[in-house]
């Protein structure tokens, strides 16, 4: 009996050692790396495909199939002094073996989107298309965060423009209302307002 209890305790301690990691958020796991490269992979939303280099929003055809892998999304994050400085996003393909990186493996797509949208809101200096890394994620509801990013004057303009573009791809009522309000806001940057007007015109053409 003691041997069984001891074995059970050993298993419990072993599980206890990994449980905190399993319970950590994507942000916590990324933040645990002070310096270096962090990799993660997650499921891509329907229509997003790539070959590891080029990324496309595909359309389906009954008679033709392109050489484009439907995921996963793969993102590499450069960390310096505890801060994300650059992200590189791929779809499809595979990682090259590298012992000097921290690979988080496959993570939840909605949680990955949540992390990257939060990064876009918090970090104005991070290089790379942070917004696309979020929007490519499967089963993620991005509209509220994209609207916040599009309207935030503290965020660099290129990131805000990316948010406006992807809002035009969401095509929901909330996205339309948000883009309309952005286009009509006299206090907003003129380039962002023009981008919102263009995005609305694209939505009208798609209907």
Largest sheet geometry: 4 strands, mixed
In the sheet with the most strands, the strands line up as 5-4-1-6
Low-confidence stretches: 1-20
Strand content: 15-25%
Radius of gyration: 20 Å
Q: How would you describe the shape? A: globular
- Our measurement of the CA-to-CA distance between the termini, rounded to an integer number of angstroms, reads 70 Å
Q: Report the mean per-residue pLDDT as an integer.
A: 83
Order of helices and strands: HHEEEEEEHHHHHH
The count of strands amounts to: 6
How many helices? The count is: 8
Helix fraction by DSSP (H/I, runs of at least 4):
40-55%
* Class derived from helix and strand content: alpha+beta
Concise structural overview:
The protein has 207 residues and is of the alpha+beta class. It has eight helices and six strands. The chain has a four-stranded mixed beta sheet with strand order 5-4-1-6. Strands 2-3 form a two-stranded antiparallel sheet.
Structural description of this entry:
There is one protein chain. By secondary structure, the chain is an alpha+beta fold. It has eight helices and six strands; from the N terminus they run ααββββββαααααα. The protein has helices at residues 2-23, 26-31, 109-122, 130-135, 143-151, 157-170, 173-184, 190-206, and strands at residues 36-42, 48-50, 55-57, 73-80, 83-91, 101-106. The strands form two sheets. Strands 5-4-1-6 form a four-stranded mixed beta sheet. Strands 2-3 form a two-stranded antiparallel sheet. Helix 3 runs parallel beside helix 5 (143-151). The longest helix is centred in the N-terminal third of the chain and has 22 residues, at 2-23. It is globular. The model is unreliable at 1-20 (pLDDT under 50).
